[in-house]
Specification:
By secondary structure, the protein is mainly alpha-helical. It has 18 helices and no strands.
């Protein structure tokens, strides 16, 4: 299909429904993004070629979706949950141990497949996805100190891997990317200080009430302006827009997100821009290259198996193997790596598809691990204490876990990485 217009948008939105439809099967626990990626693969360069993933307009829309997906993912990190503070030291120690093992396995895989991407593989293997793990924990009713500690570990690994990914995916330009990352982080830090001061002075609550009474969605408008402003800075400083979106999400999570804004962001992102991004990513992948080069299939399986194996080292720090497998779940970081790699052409042909395959392996292992732990814990007793999610419409501050979404919405598309 030539050009990017309303017919193309209609096709993208329609095929994007495959994700929610597949996710209806609660037994399989298929993340929504998997269906959207599959739909993109079918109508993109691997399948029928109905849409052109390299159309400039399509790529621009996808970039907007990428930034917003990472923004929402950042708001899902429970940075204000006080119950996690005590678990952070031990969780950080496990995350470091996993990182060390991941570095070794990354070097082995890079040498075995002659890709030269050992740093990238190390970050992928060590990463976790809070947006995948937290919904699994809630749905299975997992609770207790070990589960809380695993949650803290996932949050640490998720944040660290998202920060490190833009630096390791293209080592030739790593110094330039580091400068850009510092610039984006500095702007996000300044923004946090300003918003925190306004919050303590009561200005944010007054502004929130004004926006609600006038029904002008001022908070959403300002949030989008800041997201796009940070994304512009990221582009100018040659760093991925994923860091810009995620950094602002952490800022909003740290200050406390109004429930109304959370719902608006959910509808704006998950209703259109998020599925558009994942359909675009699927359309841009050349999955046939996996079949043409069986080594790439082995690379994908190897990356997934290495991630699970690296997280098993947590057993030496008192974590059950089943929770180690659960903590190995990843999706956001491999997807981001595939997207950035395709944009920068820094990956070998078919390697992006191998990264996604590796993520799928970890999702299967995490699902099995969570189910096994639930069975060993007296069948997974219900009543898990969920962290408070956001500032309510009345203005009180709370913690951030699901960004004030409705039940089942906190998981979003399973990206958070």
């Amino acid at each position: 299909m030539s050009g990017f217009g309303f017919p193309t948008l209609a096709i993208i939105v329609l095929v994007g429904l495959v994700g929610p439809l597949l996710a209806l099967n609660t037994r399989l626990r298929i993340p929504v993004v998997i269906g959207e990626l599959i739909a993109g693969i079918v109508i993109g360069r691997t399948g029928f070629g109905w849409i052109d993933a390299f159309d400039p307009t399509f790529k621009m829309f996808a970039d907007v979706g990428f930034a917003l997906v990472m923004f929402v993912a950042g708001t899902h990190v429970p940075v204000r949950d006080k119950t996690m503070v005590a678990a952070l030291p031990r969780a950080a120690l496990r995350a470091i141990a996993v990182g060390v093992v991941a570095a070794v396995l990354g070097v082995l895989l890079a040498n075995a497949f002659h890709t030269g991407h050992a740093p990238l593989y190390a970050v992928l293997i060590a990463s976790s996805s809070a947006a995948l793990v937290l919904p699994v924990i809630d749905s299975l009713g997992l609770e207790g100190p070990k589960v809380l500690s695993a949650t803290a570990q996932v949050a640490i690994a998720d944040t660290a891997s998202i920060v490190l990914l833009p630096l390791v995916i293209d080592l030739k330009h790593a110094p330039r990317a580091a400068v850009g990352a510092i610039a984006v982080a500095a702007c996000a830090g300044i923004l946090f200080v300003i918003l925190r001061a306004l919050d303590q002075a009561g200005q944010l609550d007054r502004f929130h009430r004004y926006s609600k009474q006038r029904r002008v969605a001022m908070e959403l408008r300002i949030s989008l302006a800041i997201v796009f402003g940070l994304a512009a800075l990221a582009v100018e400083t040659h760093v991925s827009i994923m860091l810009a979106g995620f950094a602002l999400g952490l800022v909003v999570a740290g200050v406390g997100e109004p429930r109304r804004l959370a719902k608006q962001l959910f509808g704006f992102t998950e209703g259109f821009f998020s599925p558009l991004f994942f359909v675009w990513l699927g359309a841009s992948l050349h999955v046939r290259e996996l079949g043409e080069n069986p080594k790439l299939i082995l690379l994908g399986v190897g990356l997934g198996a290495a991630a699970v194996l690296a997280h098993m080292v947590s057993r030496f720090f008192g974590q059950p193997l089943s929770l180690g497998a659960l903590a190995a779940a990843q999706l956001g970081v491999p997807i981001a790596a595939a997207a950035i790699g395709e944009q920068q052409q820094s990956l070998i042909h078919g390697e992006a598809s191998a990264l996604i395959l590796g993520a799928l392996v970890t999702i299967v292992a995490a699902t099995i691990g969570g189910s096994l732990y639930a069975k060993k814990s007296a069948g997974g007793q219900p009543g898990v204490a969920k962290p408070e999610v956001s500032r309510g419409d009345s203005g009180g501050s709370g913690t951030v876990g699901g960004a004030g979404a409705q039940p089942g919405e906190g998981a979003g598309n399973g990206v958070g990485g």
